[in-house]
Amino acid sequence: MDVSHAYHSFLFLLLLFCIGGEAAITIEVSPASNSTQVTCYFIKDKTSEIVHLYSMNLAKSNNNNTFDNIAKISLLSKPQSLLNTDDSFQVDGLVDGAGTNYLQLISTSFTLKSAKIFQCAISGFDESENFLKETETVETSAVTPSVSGILEKHNQLSIRLNKLEKRESEFESEMYNLHKENQKRVETLIESELRSSLTGFMSELTAQLDQKISDLKEYCHPEKTDQPVELNLNATELVTFLYGFSYKRSRYYLSQADVTKVATAETDCAQYGGYNVEINSLDEYNVIVSTLKLKAKFSGTIIGLTDEGNEGDWYYPSSKKQATILLWNAGEANYDTIENCAVLWQPFNYKMVDIKCSDHYGYSFHFMCEIPFN
């Protein structure tokens, strides 16, 4: 809608307020000092059977007591076009089918002294789709402009304008209150959704923490029984270790890969806070051997035993303790200063065999780490 249509829409709304819905068709003549304005309005209400507006026509009387069409506007014309058959009039209008409907004539050559009757004709359809036509007329000779009349009309319009402004202010207040109410509802809804999401998240997090605590207890707390307990290895541990179990106050891990140097095994165990396994009792030895028989598919497993630095004096370098359990295979240990480390050897039913600490004749061995509980 352009500026002119917006302006007339405002006048139309003002007219609705002024006439109070008394008639469906209204035609007005507004005289001025240098022009005359004739305006036809159509308002959908109960006084008219027309429910679907089709067109609006403005006509003026002639000397033969009939009417000559001056202007017409139709709803079905897209874009709407104005038909003007009298160049002495300027034509403006709008039909939207929803309520803002007007057709207007403005003339600078026509005066009230040229007595004429103007006719506003409305065409359309009723609820049964029957074609109807309704008319309303106004006689310009009945319009007598006067200063007092104009002032009175101005006062009336001012009063009504004040009412409109008051209603506008009330409407703005209502809209503001509605906005605040809706904002509060949205905030309440968001808060409720957040609370629900947070509750679910906290419940899930609590369950995960409980599980982690349970796993940590299983991982860190020493078993007080004399029976080994299998450990659940995490993803990081599975990179290095094949199998793990706890026994008394230590955890034991069997390596995935084999190595050619005992020092390599020591380094891998140290990364997890441990060392090559120390065998300090016959029970511990039996538990280790039982595990190897079930899980090991290889011949030799490195243990922490060494006599490096003092030939024949076997000890564990991590704890600096002398070895008290030495279960050598027959003929072992047999290579004096050349072989200073030891393995549990599967072909000899996991008896101890001494080996070179590095590059044992091309052999490679798996190893077992021991990690004490703190």
UniProtKB/TrEMBL annotation:
Keywords: Coiled coil, Signal. Residues 147-181 form a coiled coil. The keyword Coiled coil applies. Residues 247-363 form the C-type lectin domain. InterPro entries: C-type_lectin-like (IPR001304), C-type_lectin-like/link_sf (IPR016186), CTDL_fold (IPR016187). CDD domains: CLECT. The keyword Signal applies. Residues 1-23 form the signal peptide. This is Uncharacterized protein LOC106074166. It comes from Biomphalaria glabrata.
